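Why do we care about 3D structure at all? Because function follows from shape, and shape follows, mostly, from sequence. That is the central idea of this module. The next example makes it concrete: a single protein chain, its amino acid sequence, and then its structure expressed as tokens.
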Amino acid sequence: MAEITWTAEAQRWLEDIFEHIAADNPEAATQTVNGMYNRAQLLVDFPEMGHRYWASSRHVRILLYGHYRITYLIKADGNIDILGVFHGSLDISKYQL
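And the structure:
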């Protein structure tokens, strides 16, 4: 069973997403961030459920949640680092994953 760690960068992305949505609808912001967190928790049992990110030489995968992409790294020990959460409209190739 994999252990999931959210990197500081991924936590900042979640906070930014929350603040952006909460400006109009705090309840929707809470539901969105909780939904992303719960979706990522599925990786504990199914670490390869996301699709492989083609532009990385590491074992980076992308898990979809609504309009968002949760990027994560499967480490050699089987544990998972959540690297970031990106809106689907962003070009993630600008980020080193």
